[in-house]
């Protein structure tokens, strides 16, 4: 009987979930068009430095001119990324620098940071772990709470890919007003078996020296080197369990052509399955980079949807 009930539940989810996601996607696309059609205001940006122990996190604070104490969005970049994120074809902007501009032009401040070991922040990349990135996000959130030029009572978070894992954990320990996850890593051990190769992960987990540096090759051919603790942290952090501790509004945006965090939209749906509260899954016909290598159209639609979602909360 239990087996039949479970099978019926799975079949029901398979029937209902796509229709629900289609409905959310259509509504968010409409909301995105409305949000981006608003006149663009002037913006300003400044570089900030945030202390976390002996480390220094470097970030860019984007503000809308003429808006007193605007809400703010903490933007958390992905694996091997940095605060501006990868360049968007046909523009002079990165995914996050463009996102920050579009948000600020419509009245929303943002802080995008380099995780320690990345970009302009202190530390070495090889020392990064999921734990250190979560600590960076918490430090950035706490820094925002003390600022006078934004509303410290209205702090939202957006995380992309591994940044989605970080955002989920941040939302479980800090009172974020809303969480928006772009192609978030749901099962880190599995995803990095895909990204770096299962042999690389296995080698790292079998290592006895925590200072051993493990080299891996990314799907696009680039190589990266990380110490053993990074790989161990993949098995010790659980973004889906973290999001279950967060009861605020949640928007997850995924692409059906994503071959990095896969399979989609099932990987994105996992977050909604364990989250309690207002939520939605936006499913697009795009890849893990949201077609940034071909132009800004998909990204802009996502930013507009994210803006609309945040403004509703």
Describe this structure as you would to a colleague.
With 313 residues, the protein is α/β, with parallel strands linked by helices. It has a single domain (27-187, 240-311), classed as Alpha/Beta hydrolase fold, catalytic domain (Rossmann fold, 3-Layer(aba) Sandwich). It contains 10 helices and 10 strands. The protein has helices at 2-36, 95-105, 130-144, 162-173, 188-196, 198-206, 228-234, 239-243, 266-274, 297-311; strands at residues 43-52, 55-64, 72-76, 109-113, 155-160, 179-182, 213-217, 223-227, 250-255, 279-284. The strands form 2 sheets. Strands 1-2-4-3-5-6-9-10 form an 8-stranded mixed sheet, sandwiched between helices. It has a two-stranded antiparallel sheet with strand order 7-8. Helix 9 links the parallel strand 9 (250-255) and strand 10. Helix 1 crosses helix 10 and helix 2 packs across helix 10. The longest helix is centred in the N-terminal third of the chain and has 35 residues, at 2-36. The chain is globular.
């Amino acid at each position: 009987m239990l087996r039949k009930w479970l099978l019926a539940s799975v079949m029901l989810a398979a029937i209902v979930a796509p229709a629900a996601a289609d409905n959310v996607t259509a509504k968010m696309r409409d909301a995105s068009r409305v949000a981006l059609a608003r006149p663009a205001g002037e913006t300003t940006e400044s570089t900030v430095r945030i202390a976390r122990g002996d480390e220094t996190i470097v970030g860019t604070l984007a503000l809308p001119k003429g808006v007193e104490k605007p809400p703010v969005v903490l933007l958390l970049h992905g694996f091997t990324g940095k605060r501006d994120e990868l360049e968007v074809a046909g523009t002079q902007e990165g995914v996050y620098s463009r996102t920050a501009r579009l948000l600020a032009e419509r009245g929303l401040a943002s802080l995008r940071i380099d995780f320690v070991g990345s970009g302009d922040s202190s530390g070495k990349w090889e020392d990064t772990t999921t734990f250190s990135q979560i600590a960076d996000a918490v430090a950035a959130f706490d820094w925002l709470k003390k600022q006078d030029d934004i509303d410290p009572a209205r702090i939202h978070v957006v995380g992309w890919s591994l940044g989605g894992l970080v955002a989920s954990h941040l939302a479980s320990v800090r009172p974020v007003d809303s969480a928006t996850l772009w192609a978030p890593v749901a099962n880190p051990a599995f995803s990095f078996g895909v990204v770096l190769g299962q042999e690389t992960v296995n080698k790292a987990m079998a290592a006895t020296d925590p200072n051993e540096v493990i080299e891996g090759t990314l799907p696009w051919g680039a190589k990266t080197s990380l110490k053993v603790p990074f790989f161990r942290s993949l098995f010790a952090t659980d973004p889906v369990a973290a999001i279950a501790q967060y009861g605020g509004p949640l928007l997850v945006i995924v692409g059906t052509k994503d071959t990095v965090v896969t399979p989609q939209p099932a990987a994105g749906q996992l977050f909604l399955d364990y989250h309690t509260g207002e939520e939605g899954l936006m499913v697009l016909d795009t890849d893990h980079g949201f077609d940034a290598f071909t132009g800004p159209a998909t990204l802009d639609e996502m930013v507009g949807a994210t803006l609309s979602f945040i403004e509703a909360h």
